[in-house]
Amino acid sequence: MQHTNKFLLNIVLILFLLFSFSHFAASQTPQFYNHANTAGSMNAFPFTISGGKAVNTLILAGEINKPYVVPPGNQITSVYFFMASAGTRSFTNLHILLAQSTITSFNSGQFYEGPYDTVYQRASVNLTCGSNAWMGFELDKPFAYDPSKSLIVFVGQCGTSGSGMNVRNQSYTNYRRVWSVAGCPFTPYASADAAVVGFGIDVVPVNYVPNLIYYKFENNPSPTTAVNCAYPGVGTSPVVLTGLTLTSGGQFDSCVYGTGVAGAGIVTGWNWNLGGSSWTIGFWVQIPTNPSGTAYYIFGDVGANSLRCFHNGIAGPDSIVLRGTNMNDVLIPKTGPSPTHIAFVYDSTTSTIYGYKNGVLVKSVPQTPLNFPVGNGFRVGGYSTSPNIVGKFDEFRVYKGALTAAQIAASWNLDVQCGIITSIPKVSELPVDYALYQNYPNPFNPSTKIKFSIPEYGFVSLKVYNILGKEVATLINENKIAGSYIIDFDASNLASGVYFYTLQVNGFSDTKKMLLIK
């Protein structure tokens, strides 16, 4: 999670607007698009042809430019088509392929030969769209996007029934669209034209790690609720704490306290639905030694997979176990009564669950390839009507992907701000020296950015002083892991003049001067 700080997260959240992680979004506006021309021509290709149809579309570099050209270093996570007519349809073998090239025109009567990346495929799917509205698809896999190259889109379906679902096209130059004669297998029609469908995309940074649930148990709207501050997030937020209370002394801030009450917990409003894909679950606990035979549940889903995690019971009084139907138990020993961070990582490429304690790998358990069916109510701090966790519980995160050992080591003790996690650092990317950099811009009015780097975990103090040595702002006063950070300093309430900012961490101290001019 290198460069994870409040300034960058706020900027990224502004630039990368919220997007859907559902497989289909009927009316949401994409982050970036070429046009949404309600007066553009209406066309039936490729969605409304009952016998099947394929369309190859060429979108040149710089044409996906609304609200501005897509910045480099991003990957596409969803694609959108601007629909002319409302409709509901069922499709057979609907698939979307993407490619990039430097070409600026198709050859008439020929599909682009590729190579392509298949980013969306459904043997059968039902879709609904509105009139003069976007219809979106979450991609099965992200597509690395180079905005300096043309984007080639291939959409094909082998049969459809239903009504409506025409698209809006706009005429450009050169050959920009090639279509098939009929359905599968697709044979290109001996022609081409300049029509380009209204097309949009959602993007995230290349190193983006999608997190589904992130409960920090701080800044909640009330003492009886919790906010899921994941991005994009799933389920209900805020959510009620049933039989649980908030208390002090968590990993970084306040935390949840459980007393083993039956049926207590957080009903997230999300069902476990990651199937056979990789995932990571991390959380912080402080569980007292309890020699009774009762199992106390930390989280779980009571669906057909019965995924659950608990302490005590067969786990033992000081240990934690993760188990599920058709899954080999993963036991993490000696986790209490000291504060401990636990992470479970399922890597589908190796069919193994890895268990980490305070960032260190302590267990690897081979599995028959997991493919959990959709659950029936994911709970945190409890499981169904069973007794809930005993002790403290904090920083609960579910990632849609397998973090590496280096990423776990670098991030387990990182207090991540709510919102998007732009990346998680590799060990080789960590700074080797302490450094405080000159703010930029300088002079400034009224805001500026302050960058610093620390090679080791430590308590960081970053403060601003006026020319008389009086402290006027505290920008950081907390533990930080090794990494590089950029902090935003807003001096709207300060008078023009010279100011100093000082970084102190692990015995290192440095001060630099900056000038505010209003």
Q: Topology, please?
A:
Elements: H1 6-15, E1 24-25, E2 32-33, E3 41-43, E4 53-59, E5 74-83, E6 87-101, E7 117-129, E8 133-145, E9 150-157, E10 159-163, E11 167-171, E12 177-179, E13 195-197, E14 199-205, E15 211-215, E16 225-226, E17 239-240, E18 245-247, E19 255-259, E20 266-267, E21 279-286, E22 295-301, E23 308-312, E24 320-323, E25 330-332, E26 340-347, E27 352-357, E28 360-366, E29 378-380, E30 390-399, H2 405-411, E31 435-436, E32 447-454, E33 458-466, E34 471-480, E35 483-490, E36 497-505, E37 508-516
Antiparallel strand pairs: 1-8, 2-14, 3-11, 4-9, 4-12, 5-8, 5-14, 6-7, 6-9, 6-10, 11-13, 15-30, 16-17, 18-19, 19-30, 20-29, 21-26, 21-30, 22-23, 22-29, 23-24, 24-25, 26-27, 27-28, 31-32, 32-35, 33-34, 33-36, 36-37
CATH architecture of the largest domain: Sandwich
Strand tally, please?
A: 37
Based on secondary structure, the structural category is mainly beta
**CATH first level of the largest domain: which class?**
Mainly Beta
**CATH topology of the largest domain, what is it called?**
Jelly Rolls
Counting DSSP H or I runs of 4 or more residues, the number of helices is 2
Overall form: globular
Low-confidence stretches: 1-27
- Strand proportion: 35-45%
